[in-house]
Write a sequence for this structure.
């Protein structure tokens, strides 16, 4: 499974961005997907996750009500709509997929910078 993120960039506080993660290869192995982020000097944290059918989602408390995770299974693509962005959302955002066998797949990341 290969994962490619896009949509990062520089935005002012209060603005919005939409991240995309396109999956290719043996996508039938994917059980669920999620977005992680890692800010400078901090550990990588799970931001949001979604099950294969999209029926279950969860979010870290700091983004609840501002971020929305979604999937388009026909396009093998996952999205993260980020609204009301804050400077503390600045990080490299990584796409993650986990398989039925327990293997994790990762994208290379996309940088989101929120200016105050």
């Amino acid at each position: 499974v290969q994962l490619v993120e896009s949509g990062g960039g520089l935005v002012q506080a209060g603005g919005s961005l939409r991240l995309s993660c396109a999956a290719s290869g043996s996508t039938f192995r994917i059980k669920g997907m999620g977005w992680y982020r890692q800010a400078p000097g901090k550990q990588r944290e799970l931001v949001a996750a979604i099950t294969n059918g999209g029926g279950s989602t969860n979010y870290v408390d700091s983004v609840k009500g501002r971020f929305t995770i979604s999937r388009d299974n026909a396009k093998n693509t996952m999205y993260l709509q980020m609204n009301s962005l804050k400077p503390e959302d600045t990080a490299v955002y990584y796409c993650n997929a986990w398989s039925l066998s327990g293997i994790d797949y990762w994208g290379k990341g996309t940088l989101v910078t929120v200016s105050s």
Notes: Residues 87 and 114 are 5 Å apart (CA to CA). The chain has a mean pLDDT of 95. The radius of gyration is 13 Å. The chain is about 0% helix and 55% strand.
